[in-house]
Amino acid sequence: MAKLHHLPPSAASLTASLRDLGYSLETAVADLIDNSISADATEIQIFCETSRNAPVLVVADNGHGMTKDEVIAALRHGATDPRKKRAPKDLGRFGLGLKTASFSQCRRLTVVSCVNCDFAGAEWNLEEVEKNDDWVITILDPDEITSLPYFETLREAGTLVIWRDLDRLFEDETGRRRDEIVNEKLTVVERHLSLVFHRFIAGEVKGRRKLAIYINGHQISAFDPFCRKNAATQVLPAETVWVENAPISMQPYILPHHSRLTASEYDYYQDRSDFISNQGAYVYRNGRLMAWGDWFRLVPKGEATKLARVQIDFPNSLDEAWTIDIKKSRARPPHAARERLRQIISKITARSVTVHRGRGQRLFQETEAPLWERYADHDGVRFEINKQHPIITALNGRLKSEDAYSLRVLLDSIAASLPVEMIYSDYSTHPREVAQVAVNGDQTFDRLQNLKQVLYGEGPGDPGAFREIVQSTHLFDDASEVVNAFIDEAFK
After folding, report:
1. Is the separation of the CB atoms in 220 and 190 below 8 Å?
2. Which of 69, 197, 251, 439 is deepest in the core (most CB within 10 A)?
3. Pairing mode, strands 308-314 and 280-285
4. Long-range contacts for 90-93 (Cβ within 8 Å, ≥24 apart)?
5. Is the distance from CB of 323 to CB of 331 less than 8 angstroms?
6. What is the pTM of this model?
7. Where are the beta strands (DSSP E) in 118-179?
């Protein structure tokens, strides 16, 4: 008869493997904050001090705290069964996040917590684990607890998570370069947390109080990926699909064209999330952003959906249906949700195109004789210079036939060599940096005078038609006062 054989894993080998699950510093810190939020914390302080002889990173919260037995249980690998039903507000699942996130960044993890000023603390030290090849932790005595960095931040209740032996934070750099690396990483952490927990920071999660998160004393502000404060953002009808008797809500948004943003709004969004191209679904579990910027292969990312976003909310009871991973960085919608999302995408695509291309369409409608024309036929889309534009017809009238033909060849060559790919690349990434007019202001009056001469010679001319032609060239878009003054003087 077959016999059972006890075969525990090597503690030294497994902990080394757990360090490489793919956490970044920002995703690791976010995992710790999940625990603080689950403990009903309203304030979370993150301290990163590299000037100490032994640099530390500390996450301190004012949550309900843990007893000694609860601290020990929290340090146990697989502390909770992912198959068991959890509290509706719980942001954890596997009981691994605290350990795996911490070990990805440090070799020494200390947890201190208090309930009604009763302190308890314990520590994982990978050096001890490797030396003994056993799952051993250290229970701290009161003197050791009070000597820990940032112990003074604990009040009547709360928890400190302390990372020491930060062997992966500095990337083997020293001195000024090390400080630069840490500061760059902390900037990424701030931007990540401002997005992932934006609904908690803004106080939008039902049943939870507003959350304040600080990094080295600097408070993090919420980053809303849907730009909801802008009046030009379109909020489309929300939909709900039921999976396993639990609701999944889907709220589509169409973001404003960049021209409808203020300069400060554009800089804020572009700096933090690549506002123009970060399209897709934003998946939230219990108000916490899990994954974003993906259409789940339902539609390729492109111009048609570049301003579309869909906020998707689901409860933690559907974690398995969404295949949430340990790092909480991957989510795949169940079949029913995918099909409804497919329908939503088809509805919002047309609206996104209208918003994105609206400014381009007006370019060809704002004057009776545009300088460029857009053609769409069986050969595709092409742009050509309008040879019936008044400037071109006026020049044609003054040229000999062979010179007029040369002019047409020149215009066709300009249109054919239009650097479409380069324009698309520059405009799609930094649209506000694309500026065609770079004319010295002193040239404006002379150009207007020459334009009038080309069109009318010594004749009186039509001031209304002249104004239309001036607008069609876009040479004088930033000189409207000079244009008005010239027309008033030249067409008396």
Report:
1. yes
2. 197
3. parallel
4. 90/38, 90/286, 90/316, 91/34, 91/35, 91/37, 91/38, 91/285, 91/286, 91/288, 91/316, 92/34, 92/35, 92/38, 93/316, 93/319, 93/324, 93/326
5. yes
6. 0.73
7. 118-125, 138-139, 157-164
